[in-house]
User: Which sequence fits this backbone?
C-alpha cells in the first residue's frame, strides 16, 4: 500500500493522533504528511529529533514551490523532519491562509505520495493527515491517488451520523456510488475512537448503519479513547508508550489492515526505519 489518507467530517476526533499512532507501529518505513489545509498540529505538540522544536517552514510550506515545477517522489524527503522518536514527518501549514499557495498542486502531491512506495532510493508508505474535510476541501484532491481513505470518528450518535453521510458523499464523488466502491480504489473505511470495553458492539452497530445507507464503507478497526496515551505520544507525559491502550489498539488496526488489504502490500517498502515508535 502506498498512500493512506485519514480525515474526519467535523469536530476534533483525533485525526493527527490517529495518524501518528498508526505510523508509530507501521510495519514498514512510513512518512506522516500533515496535509490539513487548516494547518498542522505537530509543530506545536512534538519535538524534533535534536530535542528542539520542529521548523515550521520545512514541510508543506517549503514543498509548494518545488511541486509547481513537478515533483519526483524522492524530493519529498528534502522537506521532511524526524520527530524525537525517529518518525519522519512532513510538517503542515502554519495557518489556513497559507493553503492558497497550494492551489493547483494537490494532485501533484497525491501522485508523489502514492509513488513513494516504488522509489528506488528511499521507498516508504505515506499516511496523510487531511484533517477535517467538507465537499470543497482541497485535500480531497489527494483521495483519487490513495489506496485507502480512513474516516476517523468518535462514537456519539451525531458523530456516527456524520461519518455515515460523509462516507456516502465520498463514495458518490470517488466511485459514482456504492456499486463501484467494492472494487475501485480508494477503498473507504471507518476507524472508531472508542472505549475498548464497548468497541465490539459499536463496530457491529456502525457497520449496520453504513450498510443500510449503502455507503460502500465499513469499519476497519478501532483506536482506544486513551487521553493519557495520546499525551505520551505527543511527549507531554512520561510512561511506557508501547504499553498504552492507544498504541496497543493501533498495532491491532495495522495488523488487521495488512490482513484485509495484504494483496496491495505485496511489494514491501524497505527502509532504515519501519515502525519508528516501536
Assistant:
Amino acid at each position: 500500500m502506498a498512500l493512506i489518507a485519514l480525515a474526519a467530517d467535523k469536530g476534533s476526533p483525533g485525526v493527527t493522533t490517529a495518524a501518528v499512532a498508526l505510523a508509530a507501529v507501521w510495519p514498514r518505513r512510513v512518512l506522516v504528511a500533515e496535509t490539513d489545509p487548516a494547518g498542522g498540529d505537530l509543530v506545536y505538540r512534538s519535538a524534533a529529533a535534536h530535542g528542539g522544536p520542529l521548523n515550521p517552514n520545512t514541510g508543506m510550506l517549503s514543498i509548494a514551490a518545488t511541486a509547481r515545477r513537478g515533483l519526483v517522489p524522492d524530493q519529498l524527503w528534502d522537506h521532511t523532519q524526524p520527530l524525537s522518536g525517529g518518525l519522519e514527518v512532513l510538517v503542515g501549514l502554519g495557518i489556513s491562509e497559507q493553503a492558497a499557495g497550494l492551489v493547483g498542486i494537490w494532485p501533484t502531491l497525491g501522485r508523489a505520495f502514492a509513488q513513494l512506495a516504488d522509489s528506488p532510493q528511499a521507498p516508504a508508505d505515506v499516511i496523510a493527515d487531511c484533517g477535517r474535510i467538507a465537499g470543497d476541501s482541497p485535500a480531497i484532491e489527494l483521495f483519487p491517488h490513495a489506496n485507502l481513505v480512513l474516516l476517523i470518528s468518535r462514537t456519539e450518535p451525531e458523530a456516527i451520523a456524520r461519518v455515515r453521510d460523509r462516507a456516502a458523499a465520498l463514495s458518490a464523488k470517488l466511485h459514482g456510488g456504492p456499486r463501484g466502491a467494492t472494487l475501485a480504489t480508494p477503498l473507504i473505511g471507518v476507524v472508531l475512537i472508542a472505549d475498548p470495553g464497548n468497541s465490539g458492539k459499536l463496530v457491529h452497530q456502525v457497520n449496520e448503519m453504513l450498510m443500510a445507507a449503502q455507503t460502500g464503507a465499513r469499519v476497519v478497526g478501532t483506536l482506544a479513547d486513551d487521553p493519557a496515551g495520546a499525551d505520551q505520544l505527543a511527549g507531554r507525559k512520561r510512561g511506557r508508550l508501547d504499553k498504552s491502550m492507544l498504541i496497543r489498539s493501533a498495532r491491532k488496526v495495522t495488523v488487521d489492515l495488512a490482513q484485509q488489504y495484504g494483496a496491495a502490500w505485496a511489494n514491501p517498502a524497505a527502509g532504515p526505519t519501519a515502525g519508528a515508535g516501536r
User: Anything to note?
Assistant: The longest strand covers residues 125-132.
